Amino acid sequence: MAVYLNIQQLVCGYNLGFQLKGIDLKIEKGAFAGIIGPNGSGKSTLFKAISGDLNIQSGLIEMNNKKLSSFSLREKALKMAVVSQFNEVLDVTVEDYVLMGRMPYRRNFQFFETKEDLIIARKYMRLTNVYQYKDHLMTELSGGEQQLAAIARALTQEPELLLLDEPTAHLDISHQVQILNLIQHLNEEMGLTVLIIIHDLNMAGEYCNHLVMMNDGNIHQHGNPHEVLTYQNIETVYNTVVIVRENPVSGKPVVFPVSEKTFKKTTNTSS
User: Fold this and answer.
1) For the purposes of burial, counting CB atoms within 10 Å of the CB of 229, is it exposed (0-12), middle (13-18) or buried (19 or more)?
2) How does residue 269 score in pLDDT terms, banded at 50, 70 and 90?
3) First-last CA distance in the chain
4) Span 130-178, pLDDT tens digits
5) Are 84 and 170 in contact (CB under 8 A)?
6) Which CATH number fits domain 3-223: 3.40.50.300, 2.30.110.10, 3.30.420.40, 3.40.630.40?
7) Residues 6+ apart with CB under 8 A from 35
8) CA 185, CA 82: separation in Å to the nearest integer?
9) Where are the alpha helices (DSSP H) in the chain?
């Protein structure tokens, strides 16, 4: 499989603050890659560097063999779409909100969407199951529905790379599974390359086919879920005692936390 996202010796961060320390990473075209790690490990900094929201100090980011720094804003919007954890909820209808994803395709002095724009927007509203709310205001939707509408808007850009910053944070398990099932479907059926920041290690292990575990501004480990979600890696990076087993249905790794009380009891018993 061809490399779609190529990162070499990336250094970036904040003045007198947190810094990424020479990141090397390759994401294959069509991957469903998850970025995991504790708070303050560098997940968001790496995400912002890839999305272009944070200037890099040194190193290289290439998207499909082209330097990211050489893309115009319009070119970048045609190739990459971003869904943030907290999307700006505008007082507009869902349909108008989703149609904003077609803005990179507008020609000079084109002020209204075309028939093709509407067809594409409605296609992705149906796919994300928000078409039924097309005439509702975004402010009238639940958090999960707003997130689905944000994904529909991103897909309406028809990107090659979809970046998602904790899209399932603060959602109940029903909406988490609905959103991750949708992203998995898009990844497999449309060949969309996905890079997602995700805190839930079990969801990451179940849905992603490639994981990047970050710690203290570095990549601690990356590879498939079985290679990354080991108890040794998790205990080292998260400083937490866990047990890792296999999901009996999917065969994917599942992480079980061990409380301090249970750990002490087990340690005392064994000694």
Assistant:
1) buried
2) low
3) 50
4) 999 999 999 999 888 998 999 999 999 999 999 999 988 888 898 889 8
5) no
6) 3.40.50.300
7) 43, 46, 47, 195, 196, 197, 198, 211, 212, 214
8) 18
9) 43-51, 73-79, 94-99, 115-127, 143-156, 173-190, 201-207, 225-228, 231-238, 260-270
